[in-house]
Amino acid sequence: MNNPKVSIGLPVYNGEKYVSRAIESVLAQTYANFELIISDNASTDATGAICQAYAANDSRIRYHRQEQNLGAAPNFNYVFELARGEYFQWLASDDMLAPEFLSRCVPTLDNDPTTVLCFCWAEYIDEQDRPFSTCELALRIDDARPRTRFHEILLGWHNSFYVFGLIRVSALKQTKLILPHTHGDTILIARLILLGRFQQVSEYLFKSRRHAAQSNEIYKVEVPCGLDTDAYASWYDTQGMSRPKYPNWRILSEFNQTLKGVNVSVMDRLICRVYIGRFGLRHIHCLLWDLGGLPRRFVAVISALFLKKKYTVERKSA
User: Fold this and answer.
1) Distance CA 236, CA 72 (A)
2) Would 146 be classed as within a structural domain?
3) What is the pTM of this model?
């Protein structure tokens, strides 16, 4: 297909257990004008053979294999670089789409140029595709004011399902895509929400799988931030080229940078920066965790200065 309307990017690494179900869910779409781009991140299991078999039988599928594991973020961004469509969507290799997903989302973007992303409510499924819960996101993401939308993404509760919505390629090109560290997807979403409105389809058409082999389960640890940030960063970027030394401070900095080059009012910009400050205060424990021993050193310095001053006063009194 030379001019697909929609490009779906499926990055995968050792996904033999679920990838066929993800591919089948794309091929079952009632909206047919799409291409499926698969990037195999140097898998060591049967993933490559499974994907190649599908690509051989359907010209809409393009399969690429990386020579070495790039990490999750570069592989996710790679499939976007190959996209030829007007709209783009990421699909994780363990998730699935209901057949009507694209047919519900494409018209929304077609009919409203102020909307940059459309997504559907999510249904959680287990390893056998059995639904066990749902997720409905009731946020003011379609508000006309950028500051309101930014507040909802930064300070309202939400899952990261937005990143798996259908997105305008023209908007994605104005972002840094998925950054290679924790909250890289949320930073992308924060940038997109400043560029335009989000719309949601109130139907459970996105199937989000939950299982023990997911990255957020593997790297979960009992620390203030809840994640092994070094190990998680290695998963995002195996080459370590962009791995931040202080990851939570980097996240705060990247949220600030989402405001660069966007067409918002001075007041909107100012209020958005206040929201970023509130986000930092909400995660102050993570920021302090980054600093490690620095707070203790600070206390030691202050104590030393206080004792020196006290000693000087006592000498003068004597």
Assistant:
1) 5
2) yes
3) 0.84
